[in-house]
Each structure stands twice: as C-alpha cells, then as structure tokens.
Design goal:
GO terms for molecular function: translation elongation factor activity. The chain is mostly beta strands and about 190 residues long. The protein contains 1 helix and 16 strands. Helices cover about 0% and strands about 55% of the residues. The radius of gyration is 22 Å and the shape is globular.
C-alpha cells in the first residue's frame, strides 16, 4: 500500500478489483477551497487504454510489484516464444498474446524486457528501434526516386513495412518498434 502523495511516474497500481494500471502522469492540486487532490493519467498495463482518474490527497492505493528483466529471445516452440534470462540462464515460455506486436521484430538473439507480475508474463517490450535485414523488396523503378515514394519490403521476421524506393534486398535497416516506421539504413 502507498499513499497518493507518494505517486511516481511508472509506478504500477492495483485498482478496480486487481487490474494493473501504470502511472503516466500525476499532479498534486491544492485548490483555494476544499481538500487537496491528485489528478492522474493511468495506462492499463495489458490493454494500453489510458484514463484520467482523480484521488483525494493522502488516499491509500494498492501498489503492484512488476518484475522487469532483460531476457534474450532464443526460439519459437509452437505458439510460445522462449526467452532466456542472461544471468540465471533459466528459460521462460511466453504466450504469443503476451508478446503482442513485438513478435513482428523478434529474431533469435534479440534482447527484450519481459515484465512479470506474480509469475504471470504481462508484456514483452523491445528497444525503441531495432536493426533488421530486408529479406525481399522489389527494385525501385528508375525515375520514381524524385517522388519520395515508398514500397513494401519484407523483413527477416516475415513482417512487411514500407521503405523508400532506394532500399534493396539484403540491406539492414533501422525500424521503429512502436510504429513500424523505417528510420534509415544501418550505419556502418
């Protein structure tokens, strides 16, 4: 348990019958009249839904301990992603649902942050940008280069993104894991 006066960004609260909410923003408000209160913006840990919630100052709220560990993706085992803890070498099988969109950018050897609560995997988070090889893309047509157009390209994970016309098959590119946007070629 913690007081609403002790809130910090990133803190995870257990509200509404055990649902996990992460504090995105908070603001202590002391109006001229009436009691002080805390205005918060909370993000649901599993769904990503963001809501505004107001608490009276000093209200007790239940906190949840989220264990975040950097783990290396080892391989796929059916519908499960197998991650290895690099300190203990323990293997953890993570359901495809918990991995979510991160699956589009995971290849063997990548390090990801795996968040757990009471032994249950909540989500898998990748770095903001990753470098992946272009498995296939059609060549850009001569004369189209000045338009700044894009074309589809299949990454080594099998996921398709849009890239500029000058990018060729076999090149390594940087990709934003949050938006799937092309960020540039790999710098040598």
């Amino acid at each position: 348990m913690a007081s609403t006066n002790d809130l910090k960004n990133g803190m995870v609260l257990k509200l509404d019958g055990g649902q996990l909410w992460s504090v995105v923003e908070f603001q202590h408000v002391k109006p001229g009249k009436g009691p002080a209160f805390v205005r918060t913006k909370l993000k649901h840990v599993l769904s990503g839904k963001v809501v505004d919630k107001t608490f009276n100052a000093g209200t007790k709220v239940e906190t949840a301990t989220i264990d975040r560990r950097d783990m290396q993706f080892s391989y796929m085992d059916g519908e499960y992603f197998v991650f290895m803890d690099m300190t203990t070498f323990d293997q953890l099988m993570v359901d495809k649902k918990a991995v979510g969109d991160a699956a589009n950018f995971l290849i063997e050897g990548f390090t990801a942050s795996v968040a757990q609560h009471e032994g249950e995997v909540l989500y898998v988070e990748l770095p903001a940008a990753v470098e992946l090889k272009i498995e296939h893309t059609d060549p850009g047509v001569q004369g189209d280069r000045s338009t700044g157009g894009t074309k589809p390209a299949t990454l080594e994970t099998g996921y398709e993104i849009q890239v500029p016309l000058f990018v060729t098959t076999g090149e390594t590119v940087k990709v934003d894991t949050r938006t799937s946007d092309y960020l540039g070629r790999k710098s040598n």
